[in-house]
Structure formats: C-alpha cells, structure tokens
Amino acid sequence: MRDRLRSRSRLTVLVILDSLVNIALLLAILVALVVVHEFGHFVVARRAGVKVHEFGIGFPPRARILHRGGETLYTLNWLPIGGFVRLEGEEGESDDPRSFVRQSLRTRIVILLAGVAMNLLLAWLLMSAIPLIGDPTVNITVNELPAGADGAPSPAQRAGMVVGDTILAIDGRTWAWFDGPNAPVDYLRDNPGTKVVITVRHADGSTDDLTATLRDAAAVAAGEGALGIGARVYETGSNAQHGILEALEIGGRRTVQASTLILGAVRDLVADIAHPQVSGPIGIVDAVGTVRGEPPIFLIFLIALLSANLAVVNALPFPPMDGGRIAVALLKSASGGRLSVSAERATYLVGFMLLMAFLVYISLFDIARLGAASP
Predict the structure, then answer these.
(1) Which of 69, 239, 280, 310 is least enclosed, having the fewest CB within 10 Å?
(2) Residue 64 β-bridge partners
C-alpha cells in the first residue's frame, strides 16, 4: 500500500512538472508572437514619425531597462504574457503633432494593421520553412480489413493487402501531413471505380505495389470505403523537401488555409456559443504538450498556427483588438469626432472585461474535454 502511494505521488509530481514545462513553453511562444506583433506597430509608427515612448517585452512592473534609444525606452518587464508599444497620444489625448491621435485616419489604420501583417508574415515564413526543411508525409497502417456489405472481399483484400501493411503512396503520390492526414483516404473516395496502385510496406519491412479496383460511387455513397480498409493508424512517413519558390507557395497556401479555418471557428462559435468547439488557454497548453513529443517540425507548425490565429483574432472588429480600435476610429471619423475620449476608453475597458470573461468560459470547456479524455 505504501509503495502504491509513493508511486502515485511520483506520478503526480511528474504530471505537474510536465504541465509546468508546457505552460512555460507556451508563455515563451506567446511572448515571442506578441513581441513580433508589437514590433510591426513600432516600425510603422516610427516610419510615420509618431513618437514612441516605450517598447516593452512582457508587461509591467518593469524589471529593467534594456536600452535607451533616443526618445524610446526598450524594457524587460516581469509579467511574461506578451509585450507592448507605448505611443504618444494612443489613448486619445495629446497636443503633440507627433502623437498617434494627431495622425491622419489612414496612417492610424496602417499602424494598427501592422501588427496583424507581421503575424501573418511570420506564419507564412514558418509555414514555408517546413517544406523547405522537410515536409512529413502521411503513412497509413491498416489494422482491419472488413468484408463488404454483401460479404465479398474488399478491394484491398483482393489486391493482396493484409492487416499490418502500411500504405506509403497511392498512384505514386504522397501527401503532406500538414495538409491533413486524411488526404490519402479522401483521394480514394474521390476516385470511385478506378484502378489505383497502392505502394505498401509489409510487416517484414519489404515493399510492394498492389493494384486495386476501388468500389463504385454507389457503394461509396452507401458508406462503404472505396478501398475497404477499416481501423487504421495515421503515422508520419518520410520527409519531402521542396525548392524555395515551391516552399513559399506551400507556406502561403497553408497560411491562408489556417486563417480561413480560424474564421470558420469564429463563425461556428458565434452560431453555437453554448457548445464552443474552440480551444482556450488550457487547450493550447495541452496542444503544446502533444507536439513536445513529436519532431521539432511539429512545434514550428503549431507556432505558425498560433501566429496566424493571433493575426486573425486581432483583426476582428472587437475592442480592444486592433480591429476594434480601427472600428472605433472609423466611427469617430464618421461622427465628426463626437465620440469622447472617456467613451472610447470605456469601450476598450468593457471589451477587455468581456474578453477575459470569455477566456474563463472557454477554459471551463477545455477542462471538461480534458477530463473526458482522461482514462
């Protein structure tokens, strides 16, 4: 009994330590992404001639001054939850001609959008680095070969496939893991009734090309698999390297796809707020823990996703996001400046409080999902 308690205590300590490592890694990633975001505001503000008082890594209280660059302080702060740029007149009041508030509407919008642009640029570069370094491909190990609805052998069985075989390629094609592990199965479903060549690796390590005639469209529509494989395991295969131009094209496509998925998640969230399917801080910590056990390329992909996520979320017209600040600026311009500074600040404060409440709400669902997934 005592040994069992000691074993449980060690396990609990290991789980806590692992969680702390995941949290620390996520904080480091978020600080880096937010600093990149704020650097976009900083560079464009400086180029526009706006006075920048401070560029901070982390949030106050201040830990130390890293550098004094003319009128700008570069600081390191104690709270590792992001970063900030402090502009003259960003709160809406200043008589300084170099203040943010005294700039044209167009200049203010460009400054506000610069952070979003930097995060999208970073996501694109990281997404492009993956195919340049080595894009993991998808392998599918077959664990079940069920017969058809009429009891006849499946196309996979007729081709000579056995349980334990691993599909390496179809018609000489491989698919990138980061384009979706299910892409090879989608390819089979999209080509019913055709002959395909399946490259498989057998359990003994040998490889073979098997020719299979896929089930017809009617059978696939009725719910039968085109190839007829049941339970399966998706695994990463060999790495495919691409030239720089192709890598940049792949990175751009994946960045657009990531941004589109995020917008879709926001739409679904608004449509069904009572059952949110998006992940909050706790869910992201769990995702970090998952990729820590994978090759480093998976962490690069997660960072790129988070950067694209940060860009899209910041572009939303919700205070105090950059998109919300742009919306307020447009409203003030349309109303001839009738929106007071106090009303503007109150809008940002209410928006911030709602955002914090929303994060707590989402975190409750994260906890519920993790609890359901635990053995």
Answers:
(1) 69
(2) 76
Residue 373 φ/ψ region, left for φ over 0, alpha for ψ in the -120 to 50 degree band, beta for the rest: alpha
CA dihedral 306, 312, 313, 317 (to 10 degrees): 170
pLDDT digits (tens, 9 = 90+) for 34-74: 999 999 999 999 999 999 999 999 999 999 999 998 899 99
Q: Tens of pLDDT along 267-285?
A: 877 777 777 777 778 888 8
The C-alpha atoms of residue 310 and residue 299 are separated, in whole angstroms, by: 16
Three-class SS state of 142: strand
Asked whether the beta carbons of 34 and 118 are under 8 A apart, the reply is: no
At 205, list the tokens: 């390590």
Rounded Cα gap, residues 280 and 277, in angstroms: 10
User: If we measure between CA atoms, which residue out of 181, 189, 191 comes closest to residue 235?
Assistant: 181
Tell the CATH superfamily of the 135-240 domain: PDZ domain (2.30.42.10)
Strands 72-87 and 135-142, by their bridges, are unpaired
The answer for 228, left when phi > 0, alpha when psi is -120 to 50, beta otherwise, is left
> Domain extents for the chain?
2-51+88-133+284-373, 135-240
Pairing verdict, β 52-69 and 232-240: unpaired
DSSP 294: S
**DSSP H/E element including 293:** none
Judge whether 345 and 92 are in contact, CB under 8 Å: yes
pLDDT-based confidence at residue 123 (cuts at 50, 70, 90): very high
Say if residue 97 is preceded by a cis peptide, omega within 30 of 0.
no
Give whole-number Cα distances, 22 to 76, 221, 292, 368, in Å: 22, 43, 8, 19
User: Which SS3 state, helix, strand or coil, does residue 1 take?
Assistant: coil
Name 213's Cβ contacts closer than 8 Å, sequence gap at least 6. Answer: 155, 158, 193, 194, 195
